[in-house]
Each structure stands twice: as C-alpha cells, then as structure tokens.
Design a protein that fits this description.
CATH class of the largest domain: Mainly Alpha
Radius of gyration: 31 Å
Distance between the termini: 73 Å
Strand content: 5-15%
CATH topology of the largest domain: Serine Threonine Protein Phosphatase 5, Tetratricopeptide repeat
Length: 760
C-alpha cells in the first residue's frame, strides 16, 4: 500500500463508544466523552469532529480522502463539501485552542487530509482498556523541520489574513427558523428577539445567517428543519422557542445539521425578567463558541432597562412586517424608547430606520423624516460604527454621494452577509451608480442565495439579462423554483423563465394563472414591471393586478405617455410638471422628450429647458445635484442637442453634444456592459450621425435582452422600434433593419398568440 495515500484502503467506521482515550501532541483526547481541553477546562465537541479526529489519527500520518472520511464518519451517506469543510474547520479550531501549533490538519490539494504533530510535542500512552492507542507517523529530522517551517508560514499567513478582518475558517451558512412564542409571549417581541440573535450571529467572520421570508414560508408549510436547510442551501438550521414566567424568560434553542439531521448544539438559556435584554448576545455567543467561531464584538448596554429593551424588540418586530400600521406603531414605540435612552445605539438605528420607512405621501413630511432619519443614523454610527441598520439608512439617504452610499452598503454586507435587505439596497444603489457601481450581478446573486423567496429577490434575473448573462438569469429562477413554498411561486418563476426565453405569450399565460395564489407583494415585485413592459411591447392595454391607492393628475399624465399618446400642454400644467418643474420628475422627462420632439412641440420642450437652465453649465450642475449625472447627461443631452439644432441654437447644441460625448465615454469604458450602456452609446452615435457605430451597437442589443426582456417602463428604451426622432437617420440602415426585422416579426407572432389565448 502507498504510504503517502490511503485512498485505496478500507477505513473502518468510527464508533466513539469503543474508542479509548489517548494523547495527541500533549492534548488528552477522550473520544467516548467527546472531550478536549479548553482554557484549563473540558470542552464538549460535536460527534462528527471527534470521529474525524480519530479517523485521521488512526491513519498514522497517511492521507485520507474525502470519500474515506465520509465512509467512516458519515456511514457513507451522500454529504456535500460544505459539511466536510465545516467539520474540518471546526476541528482545526478545536485543536488550535488547547494545543497551539502542536497538532494541525494538513490539506493535501486534490488528495485529502492528514494529521501532523509538531516536533517536541509530548506523547503519552493511552489510559484504560480498548483499542491500541493511535500512533503518530515517524518522520525524518529534515522532514520535520520542513513541515514545521510550512506550518509556521501557514500560521503567519493565517494571522495576517485574520488581522485584515478575515479568517481561514470555512464559510458556514445558517438558516434561522421563526422563533416560536409560547403562550403569554408577544409574537412581535419574539420576532424582534430573533432579529437581534440573527444580527449578533451574522456579524461573526465567515458566518452567513439568514432569517427571512424563505425560512418563514417553508416553516409555515410544515417542512422539517432539514428540508428547509436543503431548500435554502444551508449547513445548519437554528430553531428556538421563547417562554416566560414571573421568575424568568427562557430561550430553548438548538442547531440542527442539515445533512445528517443531528443536533449539533442545544441549550436552554434563562434570564431574570429584568435581564432579558442580554439573551440575544448570550445566545449568539454560545452558538459561536460551539461552532468554534470568533465571538461577536457585541456591546452590552446596561443603561437600557429591560422594559425599554422589550419595547425595542417589539418595535423591530413590527418593522420587519413592513405594513403601514406596523411601521407607524414601530416609530411611536421607538421614539419613546430613545427619549429615555438617547445613547442606545441599536435603538437609534431602529428609530432612523422607522423614520426612513415611514409611510407617507406628503412630500414635505417625507423630506423632514428623511432628514431626521439621516441625523439619527449618523448619531447611531458615532456610538457603534458596526451598526448595520444605521449603515444602511445612512447610505440610502446620502443620495448626493454615491461613493459613500456604495461604501457603507458594502460595509453592511461585509459585517452581516446574511442581511438580505442590505444586499437589496446595495443592488438598488449599484444600479443608480452605473457605470461605476461595481459588480451588480454578484450582488443580486447573493440576494437570491440569502433569501430566494423574498419577492424583492425576484428581480435578480432581470438584472442578469440586462448584463447579458442569460445563464445566470435562468439559474436564479431555478433556485427560486427549488426553494418555492407553493405552486403559485413556482409558476411565477416559470413565467419569468418563459420571458427570458422570449416566449412572451407563455409568460402572460403563466402570470395570469399564478396570480390568484400570490400575495400582493409577490405580484408587485415578481411580475408587475415585467408584465407592464411586456404588454406595452405587444401593444396590449396595461393591467394593474394589485391593489393601489388612487392616482392623481401626474400619474394619469405618465400613464398616457407610456401608452405612446402625448397629452396637451394643459395636462402638463394640471399635473404640476410644466415649466421648470418639468425637470423634477425623471419619469415624465424620459417619456415626454422624444414625444414632444416627434409631435412638433420642440418650442414647448425648449421653453421648459429655458425656464430651468440659464446655460449648459447650469444644466450639468443640476444633473450633479440630483445625484445621477451618469444617467441624466448622456440621455437628456442628445435630445436637447437635437431640439436646439432644429431652432438654430447651434452653439448650445454643440455644447450638449460635447456633454453627451464626455458621459457616453464613461459608459463605453465600463467593465460591466449592460443594455443601458449600449443604448446610451447608441443615442450618441445617432446624434453624431455615426452609421457604423450605430450598426455595431444595434447588433449587440439582443444579446442584452433588448427589447423582449426589458423590465423598465417606458417608450424611451424602444425608440428604435417606435418613431423616436433621434433615430430617424439610422433606423433604415441595412444592418439595423436586419436586426429589427426579425424582432418585429417575433413581437407580432407573440401578440397574435396572446390574443388567441384571450390575454388581451
């Protein structure tokens, strides 16, 4: 047998009850009791950790493959790499604690693992009766020195990595099921308690802890923890119950290993009613210690009374619900808590979030609450720079500084990678910050992985298509189908898959069939935008299939524009978007500009421009003030230049062409090419009369979802197919016609199929 590889040897199953104690590099190991020393005391480790340790030691320095370990420690069951990685990672941590560098688990790339003992480590005979004590491998002095040098180098690199904010601990995914509230416990309080525990756990290095819609929905369907964990790709599932009495508050909690169904850790934590505020931190620390993870740097704020902390948890539970009345009640509670505890960082962050999410349609009140929320978020960050909620709210409200927005939201996802909301908000800002927003596809992929059944995750495939990654778009939808809690969710995901494939009539049919079984949030997030755009593309009347508030003059004006019908100027005045105020509404601007120019109302459009801007320089300054110059300037400048050419304002037209050129170059040089970057460049090629560039760009468009998979409202993205005057000189180019012809034929066929199915 090859002494360097034991892959072909039969490794006997490890039965811990029959394994005698032994010494390993000065460490006393007691397999049957699953005990290792820790800080002068005994530490209980998971059965799997002890089985793997015994298997490696029994191999006497030979290499065991993953299959060997699975055969002898998992009884040959099919387990994923994540389970083996987790156990090896925890074992390395457990051995490092009592033995320092005396005992290490070496990974031999693409082969397997073996145990190494540093030179000078003390070895003693076994205690008691049983199987012979495992022996360590003999090694030549030269080999020992080399191995020791390698171990020291690895240790040095590991320490450097750790000090940079990372660790060599393998990533581990935990799904938290809803915390069950016993009789007499407010479910909102339990919901808030679960959120606090998740937040504390989630801030540990390389630990992703999720507790979103997906886990809740699957639990409500009666699925077992193992089934839920497998559906969501987790290694462990956290489960707990909260009860209280006059004497104490009790939290019964456990960690269940997804692959085996074994309970990896369990405990009952109790606290006096006036100390219940420390339960989340205690629970998190016990779990982290059991997993061998660094303890969360939580701060026990003893200035907050138990009563106020209970109110805080209740308010945070209300905020997680997101209903109008829930958000109003949360704000009222948090105002009271923070009035009594002005230096309670979590409370301040929660209050900032409540003000940011407060439901109001009054613009003045909205702006006042946002200003207050920003002030409160910044104050919370002064008290606790790692406050994830404060980082998120602060980022979303710094609309004039996208670099800071991206920095803070990225920081939030680094601190707590299981926070689905942080990933969602990061994706929103990255879209707005394009072309300098970073890798948006990585963000949406993480969002779907963290909480696939949260409706906010269901736009991820749209983003993937817009960046030309159809394979990722389909993969994201398949993940949602695999995790789905009911048939309606699966049908809606299949509808989006049909749309990705260009089968628009099938998309409409499946949306229609799935709609009755969906919640309003699922319909709105999962299909509303795609449905409206698809119907617009097919020339069908728009359908609103979720309950909304009554619409005003502005909404009616926008709806008419989106139906490709230009209202009279009086309607612009009635909607409050005439003159300088025209530029306050980007949706109105983007829809109306091409239509005003097409319908001979160039003078009206320029009157709106002149009412707002004294010069092109004022226009550029305004675009920076609204915080979206990379989107505004390349798009709007082309239409302004076209309008000014028509009336003979040639010098101003030239300046606007120069502005469009400068900002289009930024899109041309981006590493993340999207359909929008191509459309901006196409607009510039059109205003420049660059036929070759225009033809080249039009040929690229279908590879990025244009126009069949677009999901943003508006005719402006369909200018080539419609009669947008900006494209008059390029629409009839032979290469452009070669692309547009088949697209028009496809749209016509899909329209006929939709009508035949009665989906008009």
């Amino acid at each position: 047998m090859n002494v360097e590889n034991a892959g072909d040897m039969l490794v006997p199953r490890i039965d811990l009850a029959r394994e005698a104690p032994f010494m390993l590099g000065g460490i006393r190991v007691e397999p049957s009791l699953r005990r290792l020393p820790k800080d002068g005391e005994e530490r209980l480790v998971e059965p799997k950790l002890m089985q793997v340790l015994v298997a490696l030691v029994r191999a006497e320095g030979r290499i065991l493959s993953r299959d060997d370990l699975i055969d002898c420690c998992w009884d040959g069951r099919i387990v994923g790499d994540a389970s083996v990685n987790r156990v090896l990672s925890l074992l390395r941590t457990a051995l490092r604690d009592p033995g320092g560098d005396a005992v290490t688990i070496e990974t031999v790339p693409r082969v397997g693992y073996r145990v190494l003992v540093a030179p000078g480590a003390v070895e003693e005979p076994q205690d008691g009766e049983g199987a012979a004590a495992p022996a360590e491998p003999a090694a030549s002095p030269r080999r020992v020195v080399i191995l020791a040098a390698i171990c020291l180098a690895v240790l040095a690199a590991t320490l450097a990595w750790w000090w940079s904010g990372r660790t060599n601990t393998q990533p581990l995914a935990i799904v938290m099921l809803p915390l069950e509230a016993s009789e007499g416990v407010d479910p909102l309080y339990a919901n808030g308690m679960q959120g606090e525990i998740r937040s504390q756990l989630g801030q540990s290095v390389n630990l992703e802890v999720t507790a979103g819609d997906s886990a809740r929905q699957l639990a409500e369907q009666g699925q077992t923890p193992e089934q839920i964990g497998r559906a969501l790709g987790a290694d462990l599932v956290w489960q707990g119950e909260l009860s209280n009495s006059a004497e104490n508050v009790a939290l019964d909690a456990r960690l269940i290993e997804v692959e085996s169904g074994d309970v990896a850790w369990s405990n009952q934590l109790q606290a006096a009613p006036n100390d219940a505020e420390f339960l989340p931190l205690r629970a998190a620390r016990e779990v982290l210690e059991a997993l061998g993870r660094p303890l969360t740097a939580g701060v026990e704020d003893r200035s907050v009374s138990s009563g106020d902390y209970a109110l805080y948890l209740t308010a945070m539970g209300l905020l997680r619900g997101r209903g109008f009345e829930q958000r109003e009640a949360a704000l009222e509670i948090l105002e009271q808590v923070n009035a009594r505890n002005p230096r309670f960082a979590n409370g301040l962050a929660g209050l900032a979030k409540a003000n940011y999410l407060y439901p109001t349609v009054d613009r003045a009140e909205l702006e006042a609450r946002q200003a207050l929320a920003l002030e409160q978020a910044e104050a919370a960050l002064e008290l606790d720079p790692r406050s994830v909620d404060a980082l998120k709210v602060s980022a979303m409200l710094h609309e004039d500084d996208m670099e800071l927005q991206l920095q803070r939201l990225t920081r939030a996802t680094e601190i707590d990678p299981g926070d689905a909301e942080a990933w969602f908000w990061l994706g929103v800002v990255q879209r707005e910050a394009q072309p300098d927003g970073g890798d948006m596809l990585a963000t949406v992929e993480r969002l779907v992985a963290v909480d696939p059944l949260w409706p906010a995750s269901w736009r991820g495939s749209d983003a993937a298509v817009e960046f030309g990654d159809f394979a990722l778009a389909r993969e994201l939808e398949q993940r949602i189908i695999a995790a789905a809690a009911n048939d309606a969710q699966r049908e809606l995901a299949r509808a989006r898959l049909a749309r990705i494939d260009g089968d628009l009539s099938e998309f409409l049919r499946l949306v229609n069939e799935s709609s009755p079984g969906l919640t309003e949030a699922e319909r709105r997030r999962g299909a509303h935008a795609q449905l409206r755009f698809t119907r617009l593309l097919l020339g069908l009347d728009p359908v609103d299939f979720y309950t909304g508030q009554g619409i005003g003059p502005r909404d009616r004006l926008l709806e008419q524009l989106r139906r490709h019908s230009l209202p009279p100027r009086a309607d612009f005045v009635a909607a409050g978007v005439a003159g300088a105020r025209f530029w306050d509404d980007d949706s109105i601007v983007s829809e109306a500009m091409p239509m005003l120019l097409r319908n001979g109302r160039t003078a009206e459009f320029l009157a709106y421009y002149d009412a707002k801007f004294a010069s092109p320089q004022d226009y550029v300054a305004w675009a920076h003030e609204v915080g979206r110059p990379a989107q505004v300037l390349p798009y709007v400048s082309s239409y302004v230049a076209l309008a000014m050419r028509r009336v003979g304002r040639l010098e101003e037209a030239r300046q606007h062409v120069a502005i469009a050129r400068e900002w289009t170059d930024r899109w041309r040089n981006t590493q993340h090419v999207s359909v929008m970057s191509i459309l901006y460049r196409l607009q510039f090629a059109a205003i420049e009369g660059d036929a070759q560039s225009a033809s080249d760009l039009v040929r690229l468009l279908p590879d990025y979802g244009w126009p069949l998979q677009l999901s943003h409202f508006g005719n402006q993205n369909l200018g080539l197919l419609l009669d947008d005057p900006l494209y008059d000189e390029i629409r009839d180019l032979p290469d452009v016609r070669a692309v547009l012809g088949p697209i028009r034929e496809h749209i016509a066929r899909e329209r006929q199929e939709a009508l035949a199915l009665g989906l008009d």
